[in-house]
Amino acid sequence: MKKYLMVAAAAAAMAATSVSAQAEKVTLQLKWVTQGQFAGYYLAQEKGYYKEAGLDVEIKPGGPDIAPEQVIAGGGADVIVDWMPAALASREKGNMLVNIAQPFKHSGLMLTCRKETGITKPEDLKGKTLGVWFFGNEYPFLAWMGKLGFKPDTDIKVLKQGFNVDPLLQKQADCISTMTYNEYHQVLEAGVKAEDLVVFKYEDQGVATLEDGLYVLEDKLKDPAFATTMAKFVKASMKGWNDLAKDPKGAVAAVLKNDASGSQTEAHQTTMVEEVSKLVDGSDGTLDTAAADRTVATLLAGGSDPVITKKPVGAWTDVVTKAAAAMK
């Protein structure tokens, strides 16, 4: 019996080694640091969904000095998480990125203002100091201001905002850019009460752009084997994303487990996972082309220096999501 068990164990080990050797390597580059914004990928990894799909997925965190578009262009990733404005801008410059899936159905971008400034409606923003993220994230804001007829530095003062909420807390700005799942709650955690804030969601203002889509290089997608690998990756990833609502504690645990910085807290990540789940909203990864067209229209209307100068051709495809949907 002992000899039989030893042989069985050896056979199992050989089988596991064989499966591991055959696993397809996929490197995913995130747009930002490890946090609940990317919980679906970490949960898919933690629950073994990637492994079940025959994939060996490496999830690389981003940061202020990491541009996903540059990483994939340099061969450092197979697929990246990016906002559509940045991806389209990169494509227009020759880095031929293609959206293959869109886990986030909704935008989480907001402008959060101190109520004491007297701001109650968008028209009240005139003459105010507004904190805005740049590096491509300013274009929805510029489109919104254009819609209101406000010119930056004439009708409003634009403050280049860092990745914190200090300008609002220190009253250097009347309003700042926030995400529904992150900075807004940082303001609340700093002791500001929700009733002392006025919030404008970009979706409500009709100037939202698509966020956190999955992008690959066009040339690589022409390889049927790579396209199949991406379909497996999207299928497994969306299983992770749709588990957020069912297993938020597991999602938070997966994020914290992968937070090498140790700076994330369970309380904040719990809030983030709950809010991000609302943006995913049961998505299977299929891109809403009407939303993509609205994104393009917003970018083209983004002031005197738009992020793109013409409508893109071939910037998104449903080949991967259709293949993923057909998989068992």
Task: Summarize the helix and strand pattern as letters.
Answer: HEHHEHEHEEEHEHEHEEHHHHHH
Question: How would you classify the helix and strand content by structural class?
Answer: alpha/beta
In CATH terms, what is the fold-level topology of the largest domain?
D-Maltodextrin-Binding Protein, domain 2
Shape: globular
Per DSSP E runs of 2 or more residues, the count of β-strands stands at: 10
| Residues in helix, % | 40-55%
Number of domains: 2
Can you tell me the CATH superfamily of the largest domain? Periplasmic binding protein-like II
* Computed CA radius of gyration, to the nearest angstrom: 22 Å
Strand arrangement, largest sheet?
Answer: 2-1-3-10-4
Q: What is the CATH class name of the largest domain? A: Alpha Beta
The share of residues in extended strands comes to 15-25%
Report the biggest beta sheet as strand number plus sense, adding barrel if it closes: 5 strands, mixed
Mean pLDDT across all residues, rounded?
Answer: 91
Assigned CATH architecture of the largest domain: 3-Layer(aba) Sandwich
Tell me about this structure.
The protein has 2 domains: 201 residues, Periplasmic binding protein-like II (D-Maltodextrin-Binding Protein, domain 2); 93 residues, 3-Layer(aba) Sandwich (D-Maltodextrin-Binding Protein, domain 2), CATH 3.40.190.10. The protein is 42% helix and 15% strand. A 5-stranded mixed sheet has the order 2-1-3-10-4, sandwiched between helices. Strands 8-5-9 form a 3-stranded antiparallel sheet, with no helix packed on it. A two-stranded parallel sheet has the order 6-7.
